[in-house]
Structures are given as C-alpha cells and as structure tokens.
Design a protein that fits this description.
Length: about 120
C-alpha cells in the first residue's frame, strides 16, 4: 500500500519549485506585525509599502501589498476560548438597555382606518 495523502502532498511540495507569489506572501507575513503596528499608529498603506519596498524588505507590487493587507493585516484577531477550568463563575445576567420596540418608522401592512384621512 502507498503513502497516505498528506505524505504524498508533502513530497510533492518539497519537489515543486517555489513561485514568486509564494515568496511574496512569505515576505509579507514576515513583516505583518510591523505593518499592523504602523496601521495602528495611523500611517497609510501607501507610505508603509513605499518604506518597506525602498528598504528592500519586500519586493511585492503595491496592488498585491494592498490585497495582503486587506486579507492578513486588517482582520480581527481570532479569540481563543478559555478552558472551562480557568473561566470565572457565571454571574447574573445584566439587564438589557435596549428598547423593546424599534424606534422610528415601522411599516404596518394593515392600515389603521382612524389614521386615514
């Protein structure tokens, strides 16, 4: 019997030549923390790309850099659920401050004859 699929896939990847796209993604992921910090500090994406490109930390085009930023640097961090043993005891539910009915216009398909002219 042959190898299982994950082993076959690993062998194929090790024999395959890396592409420019793969190298660019790896380079971006290497500077992702710096990009996130710069974005949080208020710098725009073009300025960050210009600095990284000029300093030869990345060679990716600006349009690809924007796609990487959108996909990998602007996502909310994934919250890791706490283990049940480390979580505090549940507390009483807080009262909701939301109104029972939505405010503003509400469409009613059956007209109130008293409100009609």
């Amino acid at each position: 019997m042959g190898k299982n699929y994950p082993d076959q896939l690993g062998d194929w990847i090790s024999r395959r030549a890396t592409t420019t796209r793969d190298r660019n993604l790896v380079a971006f992921l290497a500077v992702r923390d710096d990009v996130c910090a710069a974005l949080a500090a208020g710098y725009n994406v073009k300025t960050i790309w210009s600095n990284l490109h000029e300093s030869k930390r990345i060679t990716v085009s600006y349009s690809a850099f924007r796609r990487y930023v959108k996909k990998f640097a602007t996502q909310a961090p994934v919250a890791v659920p706490a283990s049940p043993s480390s979580s505090p005891a549940p507390s009483a539910p807080r009262p909701s401050s939301k109104p029972d009915k939505p405010s503003g216009f509400v469409f009613n398909p059956t007209p109130n004859k008293e409100e009609l002219l």
